């Protein structure tokens, strides 16, 4: 039986990107299942807004990403930090829970520590990929960290942090991989287009991905494109992102917004922006080409501080180039299309890739990540 939560049952949860928003919403639901009297104040996105008692600000809509983000959004971030500070001082929540999004959340944790309010991290930032020195800072600011990759727990323990591997929350959201035959009997290849979740990512990747899809369409007239969009980015913005490639936009591409991954699981291949989407595709067994383009300044900084040899979570976990990565000037229509055809024209390779990718499920723990984290948080506070 779960322990009873403290008299003060208000919890502040902060997330700043779409994937964090999704998983934070799952944690909020799990906390309430443990104790229905818990109230949640949230700063995040639309998914957290739906399940929280009080919502402070849609931080996800800001779309802050990249090394220049703190400078571009300085005035807004200063305003939001003041909002959090005032909230902590007036409401004194039982705890603060940060979800990913280091740039903003490490400041929130500092505010909580200064006021002796216990703090937790659910889904720690990927400090291992770029700036491992941040791990020690986060360890000092948190009572416990709930990490979603098995190697992360050891990283934090080396800097005297209290870290627990709870499994990956995507395991609770992913349907089983769809069994497929290649080539499809009717020749209607299902091609995914996943340009990212932030405005800058979508504007850089969407025209490339759509043009690459039409290279496939030229050879396979019945091919269909499925453009997966996040709630924060409406259809009219997608059309705007394609204004320089307008002739490529037609009824051949369907915009998809879904919560259950049912359409994603049916894909044969996907053009994918680096990020959580690569892992989602992998767990569903969808082969892909991964691309990422950024402004020149961000890229030059990234080259100097990124510590991993790969940018996609699939390759990082498998420790090899299981999926093709096309970064910066290599992210071209020709490169994307060529990689797609290397699978479409080779059905045995397609099946072998699907088998390898779905094997990632065994590396990410067991179902119930949010529930395990929720139980431990309530236990700490009781």
What attributes does this structure have?
382 residues, alpha/beta, Rossmann fold, seven-stranded parallel sheet, six-stranded parallel sheet, 15 helices, disordered N terminus
Please provide a written account of the structure.
The chain has 382 residues and is an alpha/beta fold. The protein folds into 2 domains: 10-168 and 365-381, Rossmann fold (3-Layer(aba) Sandwich); 190-363, 3-Layer(aba) Sandwich (Rossmann fold), CATH 3.40.50. Helix content is 43%, strand content 16%. The chain is built from 15 helices and 13 strands. It has a 7-stranded parallel β-sheet, sandwiched between helices. Strands 10-9-8-11-12-13 form a 6-stranded parallel β-sheet, with helices on both faces. Helix 1 (18-34) packs across helix 15 (369-381) and helix 4 (74-91) packs parallel to helix 5 (102-114). 45% of the residues are buried.
Question: Which sequence of strands runs across the widest sheet?
Answer: 3-2-1-4-5-6-7
CATH class of the largest domain: Alpha Beta
Number of strands: 13
- How far apart are the first and last residues' alpha carbons, in Å? 13 Å
Largest sheet: 7 strands, parallel
Could you estimate the helical fraction of the residues in percent? Answer: 40-55%
Shape: globular
Topology as a string of helices (H) and strands (E): EHEHEHHEHEHEHEEHEHEEHEHHEHHH
The CATH architecture of the largest domain can be given as: 3-Layer(aba) Sandwich
